[in-house]
Write a structure and sequence with these properties.
The complex is a heterodimer of chains A (77) and B (669). By secondary structure, chain A is α+β, with helices and mostly antiparallel strands. Chain A has a single domain, classed as Roll (SH3 type barrels), CATH 2.30.30. Chain A is 17% helix and 40% strand. With 669 residues, chain B is α/β, with parallel strands linked by helices. Among the domains of chain B are: 159 residues, P-loop containing nucleotide triphosphate hydrolases (Rossmann fold), CATH 3.40.50.300; 65 residues. Chain B contains 31 helices and ten strands. In chain B, the strands form two sheets. Chain B has a seven-stranded mixed sheet, with helices on both faces. In chain B, strands 7-9 form a two-stranded antiparallel ribbon. In chain B, strand 3 and strand 4 form a beta hairpin. The N and C termini of chain B lie far apart (75 Å). Classes of the chains: A alpha+beta (77), B alpha/beta (669). At the A-B interface, helix 1, strand 2 and strand 4 of A face helix 3, helix 11, helix 12, helix 17 and strand 10 of B. Strand 4 of chain A pairs antiparallel with strand 10 of chain B, so a sheet runs across the interface.
Chain lengths: 77, 669
């Protein structure tokens, strides 16, 4: 499963971050590292990007980029 | 000797507020060499001409990808400031400390400033400052910059750490640790001889930075050894080198935070933000609310507050001009000189200066939106619409302002975080039909399409937007080819903007604008006046149809034949339109010697057919913006060549589109 497929209010844990280059580095550097807990909060009005909560802050990223992040579900709300 | 101190931190951590608090009014705004990244410097209070503070761009990491990151790392390595002040958002320690772990590698003395401590404490959370100090082995200063609390402590810490040598903890552990130390031995000597911080060089190599290999002159044999070390490290870590390194930094941070940062709940600001966002980024209401907010700001700026102030400004400038002219007259100054001062300089500079109230009001609201955290939400809401043309949601606001006036729109691109997006937005913004072009539409519509006004207006605006979209796609696939900066954006908690920040930002924009009016626009006014007032034998002409400008108009006019209007008056009007778009109307009025509206409409019917009148409109919407906008373009791109290329591109697009419309339209009419 990947982060973009998750519905709002789901708590997930990152399993792996795929992709390459600048994008992958940026995702990792923003704290989206394996084992991190991420809560999906919202989807933008036009259906993309998504809003997530991790490491006590709020981040937005595009679904296309979120699809590089493999996750496992911890909790459904 | 002036000592340099670098201020660095993530975006949205209150860096600008701290910078303003530390430097007061001694700020100087410039650009980092060669890029469009703004550089602010100022002297630290009580240390004028001694301690200079350099505000580095707000960045999340030192990876050399975006121009902001590149200038920051280059500054830190080459200018070697004697101290780094690393400001971090205390409500968001983990991610903010990531940059800190990279800064630790640079071998420069550093102090850590924890901002927004008030929010941490009020929310019932706490940070063990002493524990943090012990673990990070550097001075930690808790502050609340927006409340001006702790600023003195920062200055004291600066004074204390100024002449200290860098002493940094070793954060590495695990399998990466082994690799770092093995590689250190290999590159130590060459890093030393190049005066580069060793740890920084090593992590760059681990991250796969080829430039670092070349810089350190690492030979083929050593490269093989390093590669072998890294492969072994990857095998043991069970992940690739890049991820292993980021992971090592974050596990160090997690360990530090686990022992020093005690979070009971989200901060009050975060909880409040989530509630506000239920409305502002609501699935159905988000976009309408955004449009309403922008309409309201536009209404206040261009109508309710801006228009009377602009009229007042116009009146004051007019009275000042009259006074000056009268003074010149009574002193018997030659007519041509009076004309130069009155019709040339005062009229030209004055017409641009009258936009000052609009600029001030608009930037007041934009600073409020930016500082409150709403701009990040706009990017979130609008991103999908803009990404198809290779831009991100952040470009939306400047483009929208472009419908009011290109000058503040181009100036507003400075808030964009990527150099590429910023340049593209600067090029595309003038295609949004600005309000100064309205008189031109009014003129043509009254003469040719009196019963189809709404349709013509709508078509004109749509053509502008459409051309911007086509141009964006064109640029994306040619000049701005390559990977755009990823859209991975923090949505900061909503905060009430501090008046001081807003005031300084507005002041900055106003100064910038006035500077432009008295330099480039001053020059342009003189040139246009000269061309309009003299003939080729340099005799002063009272009839502008005898002027050099009219002659040039006649000369270039055949160029417009394929667009349907081969008339020297039309081409002359287009040229004077470069000073200000309204001039197109006044020039045509003067050159057709029309005394009434009816006469003017008849005269226009002699110049244009309905089809060519329409292509003339299309051309005016798209061709190069006015001198003020050109000056803003040059200033923001920081390059004359790029600015000239930009207006050539815009004029080229204008010609092409008008040509196509006329030629295709001609087949049907």
């Amino acid at each position: 499963m990947t982060l973009d497929q998750m519905s709002p209010q789901t708590l997930v844990q990152i399993v792996a971050v795929n992709g390459k280059g600048l994008l992958r580095r940026r995702l990792l550097e923003m704290g989206l590292t394996p084992h991190t807990f991420v809560k999906i909060r919202k989807v933008a009005p036009m259906g993309d990007p998504i809003e997530v909560y991790l490491r006590s802050y709020v981040l937005t990223l595009r679904k296309e980029d979120a699809s590089l992040i493999e996750v496992k579900v911890v909790e459904h709300d | 000797m002036i000592k340099k101190i670098a201020l660095i931190g993530n975006q949205n951590c209150g860096k600008t507020t701290l910078f303003n608090a530390l430097t007061g009014s001694s700020q100087h705004v410039g650009n980092f060499p060669g890029v469009t990244v703004e550089q602010k410097t100022g002297f630290i209070k009580k240390h004028k001409d001694e301690l200079e503070l350099i505000d580095l761009p707000g960045i999340y990491s030192l990876s050399p990808y975006t121009s902001e990151e590149i200038v920051s790392i280059r500054y830190l390595l080459e200018e070697k400031p004697c101290l780094i002040i690393n400001i971090i958002d205390a409500t968001n320690m983990e991610r903010n400390l990531y940059l800190t772990t990279q800064l630790l590698e640079l071998n420069i003395p550093m102090i850590l400033v924890l901002n927004m401590m008030d929010e941490v404490i009020v929310s019932g959370n706490s940070i063990d400052i002493d524990g943090l100090k012990e673990r990070l082995e550097m001075d930690i200063v808790p502050i609340s910059a927006s409340k001006n609390e702790g600023i003195e402590d920062v200055i004291n810490a600066i004074e204390k750490n100024l002449n200290q040598s860098a002493h940094h903890i070793d954060i590495c552990h695990g399998v990466v640790h082994k690799a770092i130390h093995s590689i250190s031995h290999i590159v130590e000597q060459s890093a030393q001889s190049l005066h580069l911080p060793l740890r920084y060089c090593v992590t760059k190599i681990i991250e796969g930075d080829d430039d670092m290999y070349d810089k350190l002159h690492i030979d083929q044999g050593d490269r093989h050894i390093i590669e072998h070390i890294l492969e072994k490290m990857e095998e043991e870590a069970g992940t690739d080198r890049e991820a292993a390194l980021v992971d090592m930094r974050y596990s160090f941070i997690e360990d530090v935070c686990q022992h020093t940062v005690f979070i009971e709940s989200e901060t009050k600001e975060q909880i409040r933000s989530e509630k506000i966002d239920r409305l502002l980024t609501h699935k159905y209401l988000g976009i309408p609310i955004f449009i309403l907010i922008m309409l309201f700001i536009f209404y206040l700026t261009f109508s309710l507050i801006g228009a009377p102030l602009q009229d007042l400004m116009d009146m004051l400038i007019g009275q000042f001009s009259d006074w000056v002219i009268h003074l010149l007259e009574t002193n018997g100054v030659a007519y041509w000189l009076r004309s130069l001062v009155g019709d040339g300089i005062l009229a030209g500079v004055g017409s641009v200066l009258s936009f000052l109230p609009v600029i001030v009001i608009l930037f007041f609201f934009l600073s409020m939106l930016e500082d409150s955290g709403y701009m990040a939400r706009v990017a979130f809401v609008m991103d999908k619409a803009l990404r198809k043309i290779g831009l991100s949601g952040r470009s939306f606001v400047p483009m929208l302002i472009g419908f009011g006036c290109s000058v503040p729109a181009i100036m507003a691109t400075r808030t964009l975080s990527s150099d590429r997006d910023r340049k593209m937005t600067i090029i595309l913004t003038p295609f949004m039909s600005c309000s100064a072009k309205l008189p031109i539409y009014g003129m043509i519509i009254a003469a040719f399409f009196p019963h189809k006004a709404p349709l013509v207006m709508l078509t004109i605006y749509c053509i502008g937007i459409l051309v911007a979209i086509i141009s964006a796609i064109l640029l994306k696939n040619t000049i701005f080819i390559g990977e755009p900066v990823p859209f991975v954006l923090e949505l900061p908690a909503y905060r009430i903007p501090t008046l001081k920040n807003v005031y300084l930002n507005v002041l900055d924009k106003a100064k910038d604008f006035i500077h432009k009016a008295f330099t480039i626009i001053f020059m342009a006014s003189i040139v246009i006046w000269f061309l309009q007032s003299f003939n080729f034998t340099f005799d002063f002409v009272s009839d502008s149809s005898q002027s050099i400008l009219a002659a040039i108009g006649s000369f270039v006019s055949p160029v417009f034949a394929p667009l349907g209007f081969n008339d020297w008056r039309a081409s002359t009007a287009l040229m004077t339109g470069i000073t200000a778009k309204e001039s197109v109307v006044s020039t045509l009025t003067v050159l057709t010697q029309s005394s009434s509206t009816v006469a003017f409409n008849q005269a226009l019917a002699g110049i244009f057919t309905p089809l060519s009148a329409f292509t003339f409109l299309v051309f005016t919407v798209l061709y190069m913006p006015c001198v003020a906008a050109f000056a803003a373009t040059r200033r923001e791109l920081h390059s004359w060549i790029q600015a000239v290329l930009t207006v050539l591109f815009q004029t080229g697009m204008a010609y092409l589109v008008a040509f196509l419309i006329y030629q295709i339209g001609h087949l049907f009419i």
